[in-house]
Amino acid sequence: MSSKTNKQPLLKKITKGLTVSSVITGSTFLHGPPVLALGLTKLFKKSAKVDQTNIQITNSWLSVNNWLIDHVLPNTHWDISIEDGLELSMQGRYLMTCNHQSWVDTTVNQYFGLTRMPLTRFFTKWELIFIPFVGQAFKILGFPMMKRHTKEQIAKNPALKDRDMLEARKSCEQLLSQPFTLLNYLEGTRFTQEKHDQQQSPYQHLLKPKAGGLALALNILGNEIDALVDMTIVYPDGAPGYGEFWLGEVPRIAVNLRKIDIPDWVLGGDYEEDAAYRERFQDWVHQLWTEKDQLIHEMKQKFAEQ
C-alpha cells in the first residue's frame, strides 16, 4: 500500500463505513422503486415528462452520494480545473472521453458533473438487462445498450454486422430527445502497470486507446453535440479502490476538463469500411492521447512539488 492511505482508528473506520453504506443503501431503496415504476409506464406510452422525472430522481440519488463525499469524507481534497474555451451547461449535449484507473472514476465523474453537465451515460452490454434492478435502470435512463456479436458470429452471418450498427445508431439517437453526456473510456479497461507492459503502450500513463467506439459515436452524434470533452483524472497518491474512497482514505483527487476541437474531416467518415479514414482517425486519436499523457505528467508533477 502506498502513502495514499490515511491511517484511521479501527472504530472510526468501522463507523464511517457503516454510515456510508447505510445512507447509500437507504437512498437506493428510496430512489430506485420510483424510477422502475415510472419506467414501466413507458411500455405503454413514451413520455418526455416521465424521462425528465426519472433523471431528476437519479440526480437526487447522486446528490446524496455527493453530500456524503462533502460531509463524511471532508479530508479528500479536490483540485478541479476547466480549461478556457469549454463552457458547460445542464442543457448541453456532450461526448466525453476519460482515462480509466479505478471504479472510483465513475463516482468522480458524477461528483463533478452533477451540477455542471447532464446525466452521464455510457455504452453498456445488452446482457446487463437481465441483472435485476441495475439492468432495468440502465435501460429506463437511456443508457445505450449494445447487442454486440462476435467476429465468429458475423463471419457465419455477415448481416449481423449491419444489425450491430443499426442497434448502435438507434441507441445513440434515442439520446437526442434530451440533454446528455455520453462517456467513453477509450482504453476499454482500467489501467494497471501489468496491462501497460503487456501492451507495450507508447504512453507513460495510459493504455492504448480503442478508437472504434469514439468513431462510432462521432459518426452518429457528431453533428448534434455541443462539444467533445476530454476528462483527465489523476490520483496523486495512487489509484484507489472503491472501499478506500468511501472510507475517506483518498487524500487528493485532481480533475481536468478540456474541449477537443473536432476536425471537419472526422464527421461523416466510415471507420469500419474506409481503411484510409480509419488510419487517419487512429492517428488523430493517438495525437489526443499523446497530449493527454503529457497533461497527466504535468498534473502529477504539480502535486509532487507540493
TrEMBL record:
SUPFAM superfamilies: Glycerol-3-phosphate (1)-acyltransferase
SMART domains associated with the record: PlsC
CDD domains xref list: LPLAT_LCLAT1-like
Pfam family of the protein (one): Acyltransferase
Molecular function terms, GO-annotated: acyltransferase activity
InterPro entries: Plipid/glycerol_acylTrfase
Residue intervals of the Phospholipid/glycerol acyltransferase domain: 94-236
Protein name: Phospholipid/glycerol acyltransferase domain-containing protein
Organism annotation: Acinetobacter indicus CIP 110367
